[in-house]
Amino acid sequence: MGEYVWSPSRELAEHSNVAAFCRAHRIDGYRELHGRSVADPEWYWSNAARDIGIVWHEPPLRTCDDSGGIAATRWFPGGRTNLVDSCLERHVREGRGDAVALRWEREDGSGGRLGYGEVAQLSARVATGLRGLGVGVGDRVAAFLPPGPEAFVLLFACARIGAVLVPMFSGFGSEALAVRLADAEAPVLVTAAATTRRGTRHDMEAVARTAAEKVPAVRHLVVVDEESAVESAVESAVESADEPTEDTPSPRPAATSWDRLVAAEPAATLSLPGSAPFLLMHTSGTTGRPKGAVHTHGGFPLQVGSEVRYNLDVRPDDVAFWVTDPGWIMFPLVAVGCTLAGAGVLAYEGAIDHPDPARLWRLLDDHRVTVFGSSPSLSRTMMTRDPAAAAPLAPSRLRILGSTGEPWTEDAWHWYFAEFGGRRCPVINISGGTEVGGSLLGSSPTVPQSPCSFAGPCLGIDAAVVDPDGTEVAAGELGELVVRRSWPGMTRGLWRAPERFAHTYFSRRPGRWSHGDLASRVGDEWFLHGRLDDVIKVAGKRLGPTEVEEAVLGDPAVAEAAAVGVPHRIKGEVLWCFVVPSRGPLAAADADRIRERVAEALGHAFRPGRVIALPELPRTRTGKVMRRLIRDCVTGDPPGDLSTLVNPRSLEALRTVVPDAPDH
Known about the structure:
The protein is of the alpha/beta class. Among the domains are: 115-241 and 250-281, Rossmann fold (3-Layer(aba) Sandwich); 537-660, ANL, C-terminal domain (GMP Synthetase, Chain A, domain 3, 2-Layer Sandwich), CATH 3.30.300.30. 32% of the residues lie in helices and 23% in strands. The chain contains 21 helices and 32 strands. Strands 6-5-18-17-19-20-21-22-23 form a 9-stranded mixed β-sheet, sandwiched between helices. Strands 8-7-9-12-13 form a 5-stranded parallel β-sheet, with helices on both faces. A hairpin with a 4-residue loop joins strand 5 (100-106) and strand 6. Helix 5 (83-93) runs parallel beside helix 13 (330-340), helix 6 (116-132) crosses helix 7 (149-160) and helix 18 crosses helix 19 (588-602). The longest helix has 17 residues, at 116-132. The chain is globular. The two termini are 34 Å apart.
């Protein structure tokens, strides 16, 4: 455990959501609450559901039935609900229809806002429009949209009528889009005509049409016009609602405007079983096709509601902004979790540092953001900017900093906490994934923090760190993060792949969810060190890549770093470090100095065999460094799924320099 650098203020200790929950149940703080939530999960989740505001049309017979084991746990058997009632209609009934649910801004400065009542009305109209395209309960509706009002409204429109939303990353190419459309067999694809990033227009409709024409299941392509604005969509669409529909055959798929969907009469909210699916989100596999995680009307809102309420401490007067894309799990997590809390959400379409690095600070100030979240990679990007152009501290109204996506390095964490947040705000670190439907580990606003740490497993999560034999490791040792009991947000399986579900998560340790994250515990705090398949094993010794990267990033010649283990005929593996130089070419003397830094920090056995300079590291759009791809390029193994790679040219550079890099 490192030295605590932040402790909760009196306001958070006494008035945070989790403090109020503890007082109501006579529990002495977050750690005691976590113990109670794991010892008696039915007690925790039933009480949390009431506190969060989950609306049941018919109450469940019990909270969960785990008699069939972790993989087959049934949550809320007999219960009926619809997340639209919990997230939107409840607030309208309580007189908060005018409260702002969504703010948005585009790169060109245009934007707007929608109240809870407006989102409820628009989503009800779009729901009827979808029905007019033949969408019924259980049918999939794919969304290929940038962050903004249409993505937000469509989520609730699908949920309202029992359709299953299939979000796609707005930066996908047609092939990646087609693979997911075919897997989901989605009859409707909703896209934008275009989006703008760094001042460049990207034709999303062309990509969507190319993908849809490869998938026979897609019958309708719904397009959001570039000139359309949600505020005026109802009026403009109503004027043309009575125009006759052409009966003549049209090229597949048939095109429909978003405005026509919005013109329909509002649909009623269907009452659905708590186990009814509402979200099908694909996550990349190392090989083969992407995995489709399934989330439900009962489990997903309760899981993300718990995290947003008790970990991120979101309250009705907050505005939350997470730098994400509608195709990543954080977008529905924030949309559902924050509306459950009655708070406002900010969506931004464009590059966060365009036209200058201060764009982020202006967004926070202009929209009065109080809860901000991003990946550690954003901090690493911002902290390497020219100090002379540095922006001021985040606005004083900001009170919570969130993070997810990958492990922190200590220097990036300190920059986020101190240089950006002014040492005022807790860094609420959360980590889970698409299949988790939220997070397994989280920080708490009522628990002191040391850099890069988690307070431990999230409430209701029974997790452990184990060795390859399944035995819990000692304090400070590395092991795999596993979970011993189901949780509400856990995917109900993989879409049309039950055998793959069982093999991926339960084959190595029957009865335990094997998450694949490399973790450790020190005192009461938990830490992540990368993925299990990123573990480096040199001469029988194991370490995580982040430990190496921490040492490398301390060198002034290095802006970014990735450490991988590659096969070695004597040592089993040897450590290679790939770096993005901070200034000019990397000289031989720089590489020698970096090797010595690592040896001094971690031991001479871990002196890197090679230090290789690259113009950029392969990353996903969420900022994760794809170490697997680096290793595959070195070994010549097939790279597997590349669809989430945001910079494919990085692999070309990697393949070019690896053969010529000197060995040491």
